[in-house]
Write a sequence for this structure.
């Protein structure tokens, strides 16, 4: 329990540091939200008035602490360009990106584990070599390009879905899930290839260990040995990668959401950056940092679940 | 006349993993009777462990050539189909290994590992009954608190305890043949003595035949009924333990026995 207390404190400290850096970054980079709101023709008086209204004339540290306190209260501020609470904006879009992330992770896990086991069972065979080539290939295609290919093939050739015909989850949840399948596939394929590679090499490392021979001596078949004994021991590098992949998917949703025309977190991040809508950008970066920290925590939990030797305090 | 459990006939192994084939075991012949403890002694490289692994069906099928016959209850293990061999492994033929520290799966509870042979070979036995038998065997190998050990993970036990767990796991399916390959080598002397005593006891009560492989002549002398001396892949000499130790015929055996450290009194 003590371990989790420490973890929790370090999580909070990380988030605090990120919040400061994010806030400071927008202080340093050039560009004035008041100016971009009013346009180039605005008079200096009008700009000064708006800056005062937006609270931009106060010292940096005061604004930071003010913003931090508001964030802690759950008030992430108001969007400069949409004039609505940031929490509401993100709250509306988060389910979309989150669903896409969960779908792609489910696909990655459901495909990579059996394929990794299979390639390990037939290690160094022709199948394994073919798998290796396919893996290298799939790993090196960026998700956005896969997205374009998938849209072209399933949307324009097979006409299984309408490109750009996103369905809101509030209207039709089934249609919404259906639309998210292809983007999830596009995200999952390179991650899947990476997972298979990691799993195969971890399994082959484990397969030389003595307990594997013991398992065979009890009459386990190769598949039973791999599944019942080796898999759990070989999962550590995979779980680490998956934890990173979740955070990466949310941060990387900018590109895939653009390709598939999905109004998710990535989309508002992109428009907010170009509009210098700092409260929104800051909130999303904090959100991504939170996901990274949370995933680290979950990965740590899974380590302990997988390997009892790590449970020692 | 006792029942013959194991009969090895003109057995040989040839490695093919280098440019030139390498013969590691040649012309090995011996039999093992029911309830008998047969010791195989030799230096490292004598082929004793290879022979043991071959009998347990644990040698890889690729990269080496095997010849001769290994008859287990009259059936040849070497030509037997894989799935038939698997039915014997853990059920009729069990093995304990040299390294108790690594021979157990670190991420699986001891109990699950002890009862695994039952789960594989006797699916008709209920989970409660399996646990009961596993606990019985943990008790038979002198665990103070079988319930606690059942729920423990390998890293929570000492080396000696782990080797006793291995014995329990090997014996849970009431095998006909127990192969112990250097099973005391990694343990300190007092623990060694305990393991030897346990094996002798189990051999007596369960009537299991034991193939005890070691480089340690004094251990072989303590435990075996009959002894095989191996050198460079060949059997140098075999016979009753008293005959081998008191009246060795071959020069190599004499040298080995002369090399046993003696305590000067």
């Amino acid at each position: 329990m003590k371990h989790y207390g420490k973890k929790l404190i370090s999580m909070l400290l990380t988030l605090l540091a990120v919040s400061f850096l994010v806030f400071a970054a927008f202080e340093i980079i050039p560009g004035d939200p008041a100016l971009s709101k009013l346009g180039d023709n605005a008079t200096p008086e009008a700009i000064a008035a708006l800056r005062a209204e937006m609270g931009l004339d106060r010292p940096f540290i005061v604004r930071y602490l003010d913003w931090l306190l508001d964030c802690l209260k759950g008030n992430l501020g108001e969007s400069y360009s949409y004039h609505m609470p940031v929490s509401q904006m993100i709250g509306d879009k988060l389910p979309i990106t989150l669903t896409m992330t969960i779908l792609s992770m489910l696909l990655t896990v459901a495909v990579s584990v059996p394929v990794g086991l299979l390639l390990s069972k037939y290690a160094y065979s022709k199948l394994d070599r073919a798998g290796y080539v396919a893996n290298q290939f799939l790993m090196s295609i960026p998700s956005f390009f896969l997205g374009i290919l998938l849209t072209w093939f399933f949307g324009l050739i097979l006409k299984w879905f309408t490109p750009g015909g996103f369905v809101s989850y509030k209207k039709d949840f089934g249609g919404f899930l259906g639309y998210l399948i292809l983007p999830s596939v596009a995200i999952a394929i390179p991650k899947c290839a990476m997972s298979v590679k990691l799993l195969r090499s971890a399994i082959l490392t484990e397969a030389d260990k003595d307990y594997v021979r013991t398992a065979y001596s009890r009459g386990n078949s190769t598949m039973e040995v791999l599944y019942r004994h080796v898999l759990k021991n070989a999962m550590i590098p995979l779980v680490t990668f998956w934890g990173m992949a979740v955070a990466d998917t949310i941060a990387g949703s900018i590109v895939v959401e653009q390709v598939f025309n999905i109004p998710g977190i990535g989309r508002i991040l992109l428009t907010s950056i170009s509009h210098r809508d700092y409260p929104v950008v800051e909130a999303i970066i904090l959100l991504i940092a939170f996901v990274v920290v949370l995933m680290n925590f979950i990965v740590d939990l899974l380590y302990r679940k997988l390997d009892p030797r790590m449970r020692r305090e | 006349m006792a029942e013959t459990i194991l009969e090895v006939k003109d057995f040989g192994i040839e490695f093919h993993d280098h440019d030139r084939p390498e013969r590691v075991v040649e012309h090995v012949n011996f039999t093992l009777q029911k309830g008998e403890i047969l010791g195989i002694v030799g230096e490292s490289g004598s082929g004793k462990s290879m022979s043991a692994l071959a009998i347990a069906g644990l040698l890889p099928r690729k990269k080496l050539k095997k010849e001769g016959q290994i008859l287990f209850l009259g059936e040849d293990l070497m030509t037997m189909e894989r799935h038939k061999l698997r039915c014997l492994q853990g059920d009729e033929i069990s093995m304990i290994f040299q390294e108790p520290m690594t021979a157990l799966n670190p991420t699986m509870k001891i109990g699950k590992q002890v009862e695994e042979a039952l789960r594989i070979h006797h699916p008709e036995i209920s989970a409660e009954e399996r646990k009961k038998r596993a606990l019985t065997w943990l008790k038979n190998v002198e665990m103070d608190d079988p319930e606690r050990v059942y729920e423990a993970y390998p890293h929570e036990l000492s080396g000696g305890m782990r080797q006793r767990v291995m014995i329990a796991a090997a014996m849970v399916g009431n095998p006909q043949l127990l192969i112990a390959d250097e099973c005391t080598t990694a343990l300190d002397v007092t623990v060694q003595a305990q393991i030897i005593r346990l094996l002798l006891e189990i051999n007596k009560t369960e009537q299991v035949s034991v193939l005890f492989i070691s480089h340690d002549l004094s251990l072989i002398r303590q435990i075996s009924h009959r002894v095989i001396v191996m050198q460079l892949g060949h059997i140098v000499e075999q016979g009753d333990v008293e005959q081998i130790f008191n009246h060795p015929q071959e020069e190599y055996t004499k040298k080995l026995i002369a090399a046993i450290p003696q305590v000067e009194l």
